[in-house]
Amino acid sequence: MDKILNYINGEFIESLDKSWINNVDPSIGKVYSLIPDSEDKDIEQAVQSAELAFDNWSNSTIDYRSKILNNIAKLILTNMEDLARAESIDNGKPLRLAKKIDIPRAAKNMAFFASAIKHDSSESHQMNNIAINYTLRKPIGVVGCISPWNLPLYLFTWKIAPALAAGNTVIAKPSEVTPMTAYLFSKICKEAGLPDGVLNIVHGYGGKVGAAITKHPKIKAISFTGGTATGKEIAKVAAPLFKKMSLELGGKNPNIVFADCDFEKAVSTSVLSSFSNQGQICLCGSRIYIERKIYDKFKEAFLKKVKKLVVQDPLSESTQIGALVSEDHMNKVLQHIKVAKEEGGVILHGGERILLSGRCENGFFVSPTVIEGLPHNCRTNQEEIFGPVVTLSPFDKEDEVIEYANGTQYGLSSTVWTKDLAKANKMAQELKAGIVWINCWLVRDLRTPFGGVKNSGVGREGGYYALQFFTEPTNVCISLN
Ligand code: TXE
Predict the structure, then answer these.
(1) What is the pLDDT of residue 156?
(2) 26, 97, 189, 379 — which has fewest CB within 10 A?
(3) What global pTM score does this model have?
(4) Residue 204 CA: which ligand 1 atom is closest?
(5) Contact present, 178 and 206 (Cβ < 8 Å)
């Protein structure tokens, strides 16, 4: 049985208690590896090594840090096949998706911030002949990065790259549900020449290791992606300790389709925004609002494509829908479908677990599910399901659909389909969301601000926003007299 190890002070070690957690392959429903069941004392060990490494790393040149991050990016691409296969086995996502999206984006995250740090700058403010101010931006110190299971290496590196580029040392925790690529990444970092102690990866349960990171007095900033409920827990602990927090939380994103849209593109992209990664992307458009006059036409065309989606062994090249990430999560999604039926929803397609034959006979597969006939304020349209489940609802007027779209606790992303760009820009003004895609979905420029409003989070990741988060500004004012 493979044993995943912590990466602390450049060493690959077990937890101090030498206890283990089972790691399950969701496509076959069986334990296939073990991860360290770490706790506070393992975090203490990691913080000590991060503290020791901080001076040299933070005082290193930008070119040096950039070179190391680029070495890591190149090694991720060199190890693409192994990393993609590991990600597919650990998460249940199609291997094709891991190869096309997850692993290339992890490399891109490292390369992007290797470049961004070389082009970063800070401002000065002149007070005529009285004084000149300049802003110093210094690394914070030891920072914590906690990431979820849906896009494991993609979101893990999305936090670690800017933290390291800015000169911080890092205590990082991947989800205990999908730890494998974080472990392989730690070996890549060692091979890339990252100095010992600069990055420390500690595996284990969120309530133990994640909580230990959040409360540790020497970890001065927390960058977290995960559920809104967990985000609240983290904020409760970190806020009184005056830690900086970046919280990327849940979403319940509206996908708004007007009659004057590019119909074919709206339908085909909506299939992707509904079911990519088994609907386990915080940016998925799980509430589809369709202008009434094309409702039936859209429903028919959408269902025709959904029915063709291949739910299969994630390692098979033809698979479009893989396994959900765990048995617990599958049961959570199936429970949401049960609630939808109780609320009066009509299941147009799917709605049940799929039992495959052969290798994946015990895997956690759920059919892509399409539901109509629900009011916008029911639980199914209010709560994040985070699985292959979408609802279809008609609307008549713009102000009506704006009210529906904004009518949840979340505000992460929205998608709008219309050829009338004046209308689209008016919608973007009125939608309460951190990201609005117009006639596209998941088109990502890493320089842009990434994050949500309301219960979808606090702060923004991406580009200089991330480098600002991982540094503290000091204003220096020099008299000119
Ligand atoms: O997230 P969790 P999970 C949503 C989605 C999903 C729900 C839970 O609804 O069902 O969140 O998913 C660590 N202190 N999203 O279980 O529990 C945990 O170990 C510190 C949306 O993955 O929030 C893991 O490493 N850390 C999201 C990380 O937090 C704690 C993507 C995320 O775990 C902790 C994923 C604690 N008390 C899920 N408890 C998005 N916006 O992309 C857990 N953790």
Answers:
(1) 98
(2) 379
(3) 0.98
(4) 19
(5) no
